[in-house]
Amino acid sequence: MSASRDDEFGFAPDYDAPVPYMQRTRDYYAAIGYTTAYRWAHYTEAPFQPLKKPLSQSSVTIITTAAPYDPTKGDQGPSAAYNGGAKFYQVYEGDTAKPHDLRISHIGYDRKHTTATDNGTWFPLPQLLKASAAERIGEVAPRFFGAPTNRSHRVTLDTDAPEILARCLADKVDVAVLVPNCPVCHQTTALVARHLEANGIPTVIMGCAKDIIEHAAVPRFLFSDFPLGNSAGKPHDIASQAQTLELAFRLLETASGPQTTMQSPLRWSEDASWKLDYNNVAQLSAEELARRRAEFDKQKEIARGNRAA
User: Fold this and answer.
1) Domain of life of the organism in this record (predicted)?
2) Do the beta carbons of residue 121 and residue 244 sit within 8 Å?
């Protein structure tokens, strides 16, 4: 259809749709020489737990894929290159009564369109504390939890998800808000959310990779059509972050059954061409693909060494 006809009907460009992260990832890794396609978790049904009490009486925790800053592990600052040395491999926890410096250098967020200068975009603890003070929720649970972004479905399903569940039960958590950042992070939180719901804890995922989350069939998903790394709202935009969390709360309250997706009305920008960039082999030269393969192999070795240690 001609551009003039698009204008006449008010159509958006075809690329202004949720980024197809699963296909982009398959094509990208094939282009840099990995010929075995990754198997994304796929379910057609999901467990579902309605709220057992109003949110205003509920204890709410956060499950994040961000990592605590460790100055011994190389550059983890804003715009840092992918840093395999900063990855973590066991569930960790943090005291929600204290501030935390969590970062995302260890995962594949959108480094072109996300500067990673505001951890409020991936760790909504400040907004959750405000919600508690305003009596929107009953309380913030005493601990939040870090979920490792394992590519292994088995490790996530058999080790990490049960460990997170055990800690949530120990804290008498009523509701869990899960916040992924990279493509595999979205799969990780989907599997954890499914496990929590199957064992009695209502969940909502706040994320940006719609295809991955819906492929895995989760109970509730708040979709923000933003670059990866901004699941909790726009950087340095407190109103955006507050609105994103409030939408997640409304979804918890209103979802009538599993696999309920709500889309945030917020737009990243009027120009949606950012969606064309992330791991898009059509826009990468052979030289750039070779450079990325070499860097990926290097970081994979660093991460493997950390895992063994």
Assistant:
1) Bacteria
2) no
